[in-house]
Design goal:
Number of helices of chain A: 24
Order of helices and strands of chain A: HHHEEEEHHHHHHHHHHHHHHHHHHHHH
Oligomer: heterotrimer
Strand order of the largest sheet of chain B: 1-2
Largest sheet of chain B: 2 strands, antiparallel
Largest interface: A-B, 38 and 36 residues
Helix content of chain A: over 70%
Chains: A mainly alpha (549), B mainly alpha (483), C mainly alpha (121)
Number of domains of chain B: 1
Largest sheet of chain A: 2 strands, antiparallel
Number of helices of chain B: 20
Structural class of chain A: mainly alpha
Strand content of chain A: under 5%
Chain lengths: 549, 483, 121
């Protein structure tokens, strides 16, 4: 057990990769075995991430489950009598990474299960790609060495590129190339910045995050480096003017690809801001925060408006991601504890709710082979069971209290009030209203009304497998909406540590368990009370006090 | 006057001796019994190459000077020699079935390949301008013949002729440069040149500058740097595929070794002058190679332009002229050897008799016809584009670090932007292989030797990414060695 | 420093003077009785009239090339011989080296022989 405990991150990264490589040698004709093998590997990874969750110490500052091994020897230097390489295999997580890793390990088996029927051609290679992707994504969330991070960040592009390009829909090639080149543009500039950052370190060449965070970087240098890193992350998030790859990639990807793309890949950008931009370039972060806030707000409103005008269901969901991720950016660059923790909550909630929506769209597509809203109508009458899942995912997406997205959006708006102009907070809040419009429009058009099309008449309700795909996601949507404290408790210390880097002069308090009521009473006052340990149940308050009711 | 010849001299050239010996065996065998030679000469050649690699293993970490300072063995040359020999070995594996398919004679082919390799190995060790010229000629003359080896194919003849004419021209320029340098400094020894350059006022001597410039042109031709790259696409396209594979990596490796030695070690005091020139050449080479590659529909031409572009990247390391830069050159060359030969191996396999089927469209749906081949080619493409997890990525990080360390931010930006451009045409190959469906699913026949070559290249491309230290710990000595 | 090159200059002048003088003297002193055959350029006894770009058979080139190759390599024997005279200790070594060199030449010779490059027909 100790062996697992000490190397759990490596195991999490390399278990899926090893499973993927092992799949390659399985003859293609054992299709059933291949599917189950992939699915079970995904489940094992998820089980391991639950161990990670259980072993995680929520009140401990600093990195947990650290692993360190020398990797690439470049200009080695001697630190405290031992030779240190510039590039190391350095892993470790804090509360922020913990939940993103769990999201990854959770969504991957879901995605595998969702591809059971949809992927028939070269299914083996598809599962291989998914498993390799999972390993790389976990690597991104647990790397503490900048080059290692970059390796996973870029390596992850390759399987995703193939998932979109080989198994996607009509326009898949265009979408996959666009996705690849967009990301590469950002990431190569980031690579240049990483290398510059490593070489300018006064103590010698290193790419270790902890060491670099401790070093002082000149303000003007910070600005440039922030822009280079920020571009990479902003493309990935995506922040408003750089989002144009997203609708194409999401729409053309197969269901599993869309789920992973929306659920996890987009979070990498936000994660990058939190993990690298803020701690490494605190002054630049403060300097550029207003810009990022404006872009975030534009993203929220723009995404929502464009989503409303989409006839294609999948595109609509894709644009809703732009809107939701706008909240994340807004929260991060509010640069206060409410904002950051809210952003984290949205990241996870969006992964679940949008993931569920993509799964739902995928299931409709498998039945009708069209993604146009006008081809549906009255589906609920034929598929009531399905409709139940759909409504929960849809309501979560529009921020209904009691479901996953609400606490995060609420906190972010709160953080924006505290940090920036109230106008932004107001505009952001209006984004929630827009979300209600397009989501309800979507649901109404697809599910409600009379059944007019004969094809709709023929649609069958969910199979057992499909129910098993959707049920866990929806359960987690409800759980997260009701117990956001499970996340907030574990991310509080980490978020504070990041803020400590950015604004060491300001005293803050974290949102721990039960801090919710205090938080609400304290709107606009900036003054937050210290974390209390009273196990105050949050759900009642939230459900009753929500604005939607 | 006596010429001191000692045992150390033989150590210095022991790798070359092994290969020359092998070449003679192969040639004689071919002269006496054609039938046996056709069957076993590739394997004899391989044994010779492996023997050469083993002998390099004994030189690992040692330093020798031989033949009155004409040749040196140091970490730099040993590493580059390894790159060259890996290139030769893989090219031999590719040639076995290629020659059979094209119905070409076997024995002389391997003899020429080995002799050209010997020229490259000598070039890598040369510490004397005359020696550089001699070994350059040795490798070139054999290559001219190899380029035109498919005598019945006009394209191959044309390529051989073109390469010969332009090559001899560049060699002449090189010699002229050497003569001018001798005129200005009174020495052709690289260490002597470095020492002579410390004399006051010598640096502005126009004869010296002209000489150095001409030497640069001569070597620039061999590494295919812009504006001396015009021969590359035609020659690479026309030459037999395995020869192109060999030529694109091994010649480049050897010529870069010589270029580095001349510029960074001998002419380091003149760096104020050549730095700007190399800067411009590197930038132009990267931009030109990558931009033109986009427009290619013939995979051989595309890879030719890609190889021009890679020369540009390595020139970035030369331009940085610091420890990181010098260290990154051998690594880049070794990584490039495997990924590029790998790509050429796939090209060789896909190509049909008479060098037909080199259009990108011939790769349509390769994933559906032979997944292993397609995945390998994809890996090489990603590696050439510098995307992890491949050796090409590690090589690029070293390069970028060298550029930043030398404060060549402008060049770094060019390198980054052109890398993005390059991703486009490398991706195009993967798009065609993976994302287009083939019109008819016909299996691709892959000879076993070619399979072995491809698998070695794949493993090495991944291995160098995972464990790059094996060369790095070693190359640290490179910088210390001076000359 | 240039003084060192004086012998070369003298040699150069002597060479030019000798050849130039010979031509000049024969022109001045020789009797001149021209006829068409005498005025025609000397061409190794062949008829100098006709197209000048006559194709030669490739074997002429081959033989010429081989001749030059071996001819040039023999030049190495001279400096070797000079060194061999003055060397005392390493004579055996030098001898072996020359044997190796000649051996390499011999392999080339055997090769062209077996390949039929020396066959006239």
């Amino acid at each position: 057990m100790d062996l697992i405990r000490n190397h759990i991150l490596s195991i999490l990264i390399f278990l899926p990769i090893a499973a993927g490589i092992a799949l390659v040698i399985v003859p293609r004709r054992y299709a059933v075995f291949i599917r189950w093998f992939a699915f079970i590997s995904g489940l094992v990874a998820f089980a391991l991430s639950i161990l990670l969750f259980l072993w995680f110490r929520s009140n401990m500052a600093g990195w947990q489950f650290e692993e360190f091994a020398p990797w690439i020897r470049v200009l080695p230097r001697v630190v405290e009598g031992e030779t240190r390489y510039a590039i190391n295999y350095h892993l470790g997580i804090d509360g922020i990474s913990l939940f993103l890793i769990m999201l990854t390990t959770f969504l991957t088996p879901v995605a595998i299960l969702a591809s059971w029927r949809g992927i028939t051609e070269r299914a083996r290679e598809f599962y291989v790609a998914l498993l390799l992707l999972e390993g790389a994504m976990i690597g991104v969330f647990s790397s503490l060495d900048l080059i290692l991070f970059y390796v996973f960040w870029d390596a992850m592009l390759i399987p995703m590129y193939f998932i979109i390009g080989v198994w996607g829909y009509e326009n898949r090639i265009y979408a996959s190339i666009k996705f690849f080149i967009y990301t590469l543009v950002g990431s190569l500039l980031m690579l240049a910045a990483i290398i510059y950052l490593g070489l300018q370190n006064p103590a010698g060449l290193t790419f270790d995050l902890t060491e670099l965070v401790a070093a002082d970087i000149a303000r003007s240098v910070q600005y440039w480096l922030f822009l280079a890193f920020g571009l990479a992350f902003a493309i990935k998030v995506p922040v408003f003017p750089l989002h144009t790859w997203l609708p194409d990639a999401h729409t053309e990807a197969p269901t599993a690809g869309s789920v992973i793309l929306a659920g996890i890949l987009l979070k990498m950008g936000a994660y990058g801001f939190l993990r690298f931009c803020l701690p490494l370039f605190p002054e630049a972060s403060v300097h550029f925060a207003p810009l990022m806030i404006v872009l975030g707000v534009i993203g929220i409103i723009y995404g929502a408006l464009v989503a409303y005008s989409q006839p294609d269901i999948k595109r609509l969901v894709a644009y809703s991601s732009v809107s939701h991720l706008g909240f994340v950016v807004l929260g991060i660059f509010a640069l206060n504890i409410q904002g950051i923790q809210g952003a984290l909550l949205i990241m996870i909630a969006h992964g679940l709710s949008t993931g569920a929506l993509f799964l739902i769209v995928g299931m409709m597509y498998e039945r009708r082979h069209t993604r146009l809203m006008s081809d549906y109508g009255g589906v609920w009458r034929r598929m009531p069971f399905f409709g139940a899942f759909f409504i929960i995912a849809a309501l979560a997406s529009l921020g209904l209290p009691g479901l996953a997205n609400f606490p995060g959006e609420f906190l972010v708006i709160l953080g924006t009030f505290a940090a920036a102009n109230w106008v932004y907070a107001l505009l952001a809040a209006s984004g929630v209203v827009f979300a209600a419009i397009y989501i309800l429009w979507l649901y109404g058009n697809v599910m409600q009304g009379p059944v007019e099309k004969p094809e709709v008449e023929a649609m069958r309700d969910l199979s057992v497998r499909e129910a098993f795909v959707l049920a866990p996601v929806v359960i987690f949507i409800v759980l997260l909406g009701v117990f956001p404290g499970v996340v907030l408790d574990r991310t509080a210390v980490s978020s504070e540590a990041i803020l400590e880097q950015v604004r060491p002069d300001e005293s803050r308090t974290s949102l721990g368990r039960g801090a919710w009521a205090i938080e609400v009473r304290g709107i606009g006052t900036h003054a937050l009370r210290p974390k209390t340990d009273s196990p105050q149940p949050v759900p009642h308050f939230l459900v009753e006090g929500g604005e939607e009711q | 006057m006596t010429i001191p010849v000692s045992a150390a001299d033989w150590i210095v050239i022991n790798t070359e001796l092994i290969l020359v010996g092998t070449a003679m065996i192969v040639l004689l065998l071919d002269a006496f019994n054609r039938r046996i030679s056709d069957r076993i000469s590739p394997w004899i050649t391989l044994v010779g190459v492996v023997g050469g690699l083993v002998s390099l293993g004994f030189l690992w970490g040692q330093e020798y000077t031989g033949f009155a300072g004409m040749l040196v063995i140091d970490s730099f040359s040993v590493l580059v020699k390894m790159a060259i020999l890996f290139g030769t070995g893989l090219a031999v594996l590719l040639s076995v079935d290629y020659l059979r398919r094209e119905e070409l004679a076997q024995g002389e082919y391997y003899g020429l390949l080995l002799l050209s390799t010997v020229g490259m190995l000598l070039l890598t060790s040369s510490a004397n301008l005359i020696m550089i010229f001699l070994s350059l000629e040795m490798l070139s003359i054999a290559l001219y013949v190899l380029t035109g080896y498919a005598r019945m194919r006009p394209r191959s003849q044309e390529a051989g002729m073109k390469y010969f004419l332009l090559g001899s021209f560049s060699a002449a320029i090189l010699v002229y440069g050497v003569a001018l340098i001798y005129g200005a400094l009174g020495t052709v020894d690289l260490a002597g040149v470095a020492e002579a350059l410390t004399a006051p006022g010598i640096l502005s001597n126009p004869v010296l500058l002209a000489g150095a410039g001409l030497v640069l042109v001569g070597l620039g031709f061999k590494v295919a740097a812009v504006p001396f790259q015009m021969w590359t696409p035609d020659v690479y396209e026309g030459a037999p595929s395995p020869v192109t594979a060999f030529m694109s990596v091994s010649t480049k490796a050897a010529a870069f070794a010589a270029l580095t030695r001349v510029l960074v070690f001998a002419f380091s005091d003149l760096s104020g002058v050549w730095m700007a020139v190399i800067w411009a050449i590197a930038a132009l080479t990267m931009i030109f190679g990558n931009l033109v590659a986009i427009a290619q529909n013939n995979i051989k031409r595309m890879l030719a332009y890609s190889s021009i572009a890679h020369a540009g990247y390595i020139l970035v390391a030369v331009a940085s002229a610091n420890q990181l830069g010098i260290q990154s050159i051998p690594f880049y060359l070794i990584a490039y050897t495997f990924m590029n030969i790998g790509a050429w191996a796939v090209v060789t396999v896909i190509t049909r008799k008479g060098e037909e089927g080199v259009g990108l469209s011939d790769y349509t749906g390769l994933f559906w016809r032979n997944p292993l081949l397609a995945v390998s080619m994809g890996l090489f493409m990603f590696s050439l584009a510098g995307i992890p997890p491949t050796a090409g990525f590690t090589a690029k990080i070293y390069l970028f670090m060298a550029a930043v360390n030398a404060n060549l931010i402008g060049l770094l930006i060019v390198a980054v932007v052109t890398t993005i451009i390059s991703a486009y045409f490398y991706l195009r190959v993967t798009v065609i292989m993976f994302m287009h469906r083939p019109s008819e699913v016909s299996a691709v026949h892959v000879p076993i030797a070619a399979y072995v070559a491809i698998i070695i290249a794949v493993v090495a491309t991944l291995w160098l990414f995972l464990f790059p230290n094996s060369t790095q710990a070693f190359t640290e000595a490179v910088w210390r060695m001076g000359l | 420093m240039l003084v060192q090159y004086l012998p070369f200059l003298i040699l150069f002048i002597v060479a030019v003077a000798f050849s130039g003088g010979a031509i000049l003297l024969s022109r001045l002193l020789g009797p001149k009785r021209p006829n068409p055959v005498k005025l025609a350029p000397y061409e190794s006894g062949m008829v100098p009239i006709g197209g000048t770009r006559r194709p030669f058979h490739i074997r002429y080139y081959l033989v010429a090339m081989l001749f030059i190759l071996f001819d040039i390599e023999i030049i190495f024997l001279y400096p070797w011989a000079v060194i061999y005279l003055t060397a005392r200790a390493a004579r055996l070594f030098l001898l072996l080296e020359m044997i190796v060199f000649l051996g390499v030449l011999m392999i080339g010779y055997i090769y062209i022989w077996r390949k039929g490059a020396l066959d006239w027909e």
